[in-house]
Sequence to fold (845 residues):
Amino acid sequence: MRIGVFVCHCGTNIDGTVDSHQVAEEAKKFPHVVYATDYLYTCSEPGQQEIQQAVGEHDLDGVVVAACSPRMHENTFRRTIERAGLNRYMFEMANIREHCSWIGEDREANTHKAIELVRMAVAKVANHVHLHPSYFEVNKRVLVIGAGVAGMQAALDCADGGLDVVLVEKKSSIGGRMAQLDKTFPTVDCSICILGPKMVDVGQHEKIKLCTYSEIEDISGYVGNYTVNIRRKATYVDWGKCTGCGLCMEKCPSKKAYDYHNEGIADTTAINISFPQAIPKKATIDPEYCRQFTKGKCGVCAKVCPLGAIDYEMEDEIVAEEVGAIIVATGYGLLNMEELGEYGAGRYPDVITGIQYERFLNASGPTQGHVVRPSDGEEPKRVVFISCAGSRDASLDRPYCSNFCCMYIAKQAILTRDHIPDSEVYVFYMDTRSPSKGYEEFIRRAQEEYGVQYVRGRVSRIYPKGKRMVVRGADTLLGTQVEVETDLVVLATAATCAPEAEELAEKLRISYDEYGFYMESHPKLRPVETNTSGVFLAGACQGPKDIPAAVGQGSAAASKVLSLFSKDQLESDPQIAQVMELRCVGCLKCADTCPFQAIEEKELPDGRVVGHVIETVCQGCGLCTSICPSGAIQLQQCTDNQLIAEVEALCQAWRERSSG
Amino acid sequence: MEILDLGSIDRHFIRAVEEESGQDVSHCYQCGNCTAGCPLSFAYDIPVHQIMRLIQLGQKEKVLRSHAIWLCATCETCTTRCPCEVDVARVMDTLRIMARREGTVSEEGVRRFYDTFLDSVKRHGRLYEVGLLMRYNLLSGRPFADADLGPKVLGKGKLHFLPENIKGVEAIKGIFDRFAKKRGA
Fold:
């Protein structure tokens, strides 16, 4: 074996605390190494050319690059040696940056460690074998989870690009949060007026299969070939027959059901269509409130339905769908305002959340757009908005900014002044965050044109006084306490991850941060990818974001899927587990351990049962290799022999040092 | 208005406050919630969020000579409400200790009251109210301040003329002595 070693300085990133030149000089002494050198930036074009040249000149058949993490440039260098005519897997990276130069300041110790890391990599490459990828078919259908504005945009873009889309939505209608909003900032255009056409497009698109009132049961498979089981929850109404006429809602005697679309500011009927523009416009029964379910008799809706669509016996149904890629667009949740005890939230009826206020402002809301106080139905003459209600609050374990509250408070403040011209509006804020186009001007408009009083300070407490409430806060610009008597308080409660976000992440095998928001593959350069190949993110499930950003990400995720599906076949990574059938005792512990269900039973011609790795499913995690009692299952390019060779090289170095 | 020289930041002071209070003052983002909830803000010369700001800017003189730190009642509303989990009341307490050490106590009366209170505890193992009041008044040079309230509370049996020492007064005294010795050393 003839191995070349290339040590990178990475400017001063490595060479600042590691003597890269000395590492290369030492490497020359290692077994099999016929060439070693150091270079300022190995990943640069001349750096790569040097590797290519050296492969030819020194007749190399294995290459080690000592530089950054393989997560950065492993692929770069594999392609480099491939261009030089080598098998791309005859390559190993020694990570002397993240694992070495960046973590210690002692140059001598770092240099020493770098030498040993290179020594191990060389020992490993010496045991490398040529590997060749195989190819597998791609199922060019895409699953979109969540039909809010981000999910709808992703679904439409995929469908317009010719892909078959399965769009799964938890609620009975598509539309998501945006369907609950009255107007949108900074243009103050009607939310449902701009969302409605998109919803219609989604509902009527021949390439989009809608599964509303459905949830993901489980997901198996791998990029290009996922199998998804979808739970279609029982609606107790045959949607094939229901025309959305609404007669059942008129006659339903149970009128105290919780109205999710209106965030509980009004009640609805046990059988209901969530809002007038719902798509699909079909009724569902809430069994928690339906008398047929709670008392065992009623049946009014069944009697009045002209099409006989009511079916109290309906059960959940599991439907399997085969797809090649998944876009997750499950949106966000909101902090339970009862966590904010000092604001009396939950105790005082006239302390409400921003999304509830949105429903008061909305013409199709329960008050037809008339703003009223929940306690007595009177029009408030003074409204106080409190921003950062739970956001940027380490004491509630939510140190992050919820992104869109500053803007929607400004919008709601303007709308309040519009709806009630003789009202006074106050906004308590810590900072106003308005970095997008037209945003800062919008907040200025609220103050300059609409006379909204912005007070820079937090609110300490709210207490009742007669029919009104007193808000006690501070004006930090004046350095004084302030107090204002008000009719209504609106809290901009913190945006949280969607309910059950973590459970879905486990099913998808994607990672999430400590607040339950899904992790993108790279915060700057791979913003819609996840670390699971074939799973993409869109919208606020990745972090709080406003409508333009969510729509942008929806389109971005769709373009990623379209480019993934531009090939008919995908290449599979050959660095996977392999069973040596002669050694396998057929215990199948590997199959039980595999988190990807990549190992199946196989019967040999002689009747013996052994494990068999399904090439395309195996992700190369190596769990099986650690459980196999006979060492029969080996991860390619990470075999027991290679690991032992690495350890051996390290021990050899230690022996030499202690004897010398 | 005077111009604050930002080059005058006393970093030793910031570090000392942080070390003695166990709080990280850089966590404060000046939301004003401490001032908003403070029941004594009306009497302060500097509102509490500005005390925090002055510490962040290392303005030792201004902070340790302020009246606010002595008027704080340690009710801990600020601590409870702080979204950044700064124990503001603890910081105020630390500032009082530092002001005593530096000899920059701006509210002699408050300091005297604290001293008299502790002296009473040291002598009796508990508070002897009448003794505390008389001693405090004498030291303040106003021997008859609030004397008119005396008969009222005495009549209700709220105060006792004679001190009621606890068992083991000596042990309590020992605590004070040990502390005095430690501080002396």
Remarks:
- The mean pLDDT of chain B is 93.
- The two ends of chain B are 43 Å apart (CA to CA).
